[in-house]
Every structure is written in structure tokens, then in C-alpha cells.
Amino acid sequence: MGVQVLFHGCLDDFLPPDGRGQPATQRTSRRTSLKDLVESFGVPHTEVAALTLNDAPAAFETLIEPLESDHYLIRAWPAGLSGGLPGGHALQPPRPRPARFVLDVHLGRLARYLRLLGFDVCWRNDFEDEEIADTSSAQRRILLTRDRRLLYRRQIVHGYFVRATDPSQQIEEICQRFELHDEIDAFKRCARCNGLLMKVDKASVAHRLKARTLDYYDDFYRCNKCRHVYWQGSHFARMSDWVEALKQTAIEG
Q: Which residues does 33 contact at the CB level (< 8 Å), separation at least 6?
């Protein structure tokens, strides 16, 4: 049985260049779900916001039968299309608000950037794939990864394959994809461990600081988890400019 699948919008990112913009064909001799068919082309189900089967709304669990006489045309749409989804049929529930994330081990810099913007981010450099997937499901966290096979796991509802490889481009991509700009609350979390920062009395942390730091700064913040101490040093102005530039991108976009 031959099945044609047409991927719309950015779902083309997962296809070979010469296969984009046209129906892809898959042959199967067994009953199969639309989820498995879509992912056989390398497109994670978490990237698909809507499906139709022969122009009728369909779900990931919809099965097609291996009948030679039948013709199947599956269309797949990503989230965020300007024209909306076909018939208003959406497969994915609304994303968690405020946005919360879990990232795979290779996205440590992106995790730090998201924490600097105030987002609750779960990341460790020793995460196993199964633990990442379970955390995403149990805590309703958006899973970010550059391993598309991790996104194939059925328990993952909210997930995204990060296209960019440069961390500074990755944070722009994620803010755009999930429309995070209105949720940014910068400098309230520890970039190291995700803890919340609390303002503390200067005298209580003086023993941990260099003399010049004590001379030039009066306002200090301490992470409620790892106890790391922060202050608004020379880097703070640069980071503030960076945050404002991200917000401006949304206004101009």
C-alpha cells in the first residue's frame, strides 16, 4: 500500500532538500498509526499541530489499513501557521503558561540563557533520555532537544527540535517559536542551578566578596538553592541590553 504525506511549513525542515514542497510516499504492508507514519519520515509528533487523512481531521492514533484499493493522502501542519490550522483541528493542547522547560544534556548554554530570562529550566549534564522524557511528561515541561528521536517518545506532549546550533541563535529561536517575550522576567533565577534569587544584606555576604566588590556595590542577591552570590556588575548593563534586544525583536517581528 502506498501512502502520500504532505508536510506543510517548517515541517519541511526534517525532509531531504529534494523532497520538500511535494508529497512524500511511504509503502507499508501493515496497519499503522498516523504517528508512526509521520515519524517514519523523521518528523517528530511534537512538531505536528494538525493532521488530515483524505481531507478529514485525524489524530495521531488514527489507523490506516493496508488495502491496495485505498488511496491515502495525509497532510501535516506545524504550529504557528499564519492562516491557522485546518478546520480548527489541533492535536496539541496549549503549551504550559508560564512556560517551563526541560533540556537535553547538549543544550547547557541555552538552559543558562533561558534561566537568565527568568524561565524555570530543568537541565543537568548527566540527564538520561528516559529521565528527560519522564520529567517533561510528569511536570508538563516543554522538552527542547537536538535529538529528534528523543521527541518520538509517546509520553512527550510538548517538545521542540531546536534548529539552530549557536546558543545565541537558539535563544532567539525559542523565544520566537513559543512567543515568550511577554513572559520574560529577567535576572530572577540562578543561571547555574535554576534557584530563585533573593536580595540579601551586604553584611551577610561580605566574607565571600573581594574588597573592590564591597567598595563599588551595595545590592547583592543570593540563590536560594546553591547560595551563589550575584550583584549588578559591569556585565549587567550588557545583559540588560541583550534582554531588551530580544523583546524588541518581538515588536519588530
A: 60, 61, 62, 63
| Paired strand residues for 2 | 27
**Strand arrangement, sheet containing 159-161:** 120-122, 100-103, 142-145, 159-161
Q: Beta strands 100-103 and 142-145: pairing type?
A: parallel
Cell of 115: 534561566
Q: Judge whether 181 and 173 are in contact, CB under 8 Å.
A: no
Mean pLDDT of the chain: 90
Residue in 178, 175, 197 with CA at minimum distance from that of residue 247: 175
Note the maximum CA span of the chain.
82
Beta strands 2-7 and 24-27 are antiparallel
This prediction's pTM: 0.91
Distance CA 110, CA 56 (A): 39
Measured at the CA of 12, the angle between CA 7 and CA 17, to 5 degrees, comes to: 125
Query: Please, which residues have CB within 8 angstroms of residue 159's CB and are 6 or more apart in sequence?
Result: 44, 46, 47, 136, 142, 143, 144, 145, 150, 151
Q: Which amino acid is located at 234 in the chain?
A: S
In the numeric block, which cell numbers belong to residue 81?
Answer: 501557521
Closest among 29, 188, 15, 162 to 98, alpha carbons compared: 188
Q: pLDDT tier at 89 (50, 70, 90 boundaries)? A: low
Query: Are the CB atoms for 50 and 85 separated by under 8 Å?
Result: yes
pLDDT at residue 188, rounded to an integer: 96
Predicted local distance difference test score (pLDDT) of residue 192:
96
**Contact (Cβ atoms closer than 8 angstroms) between residue 34 and residue 6:** no
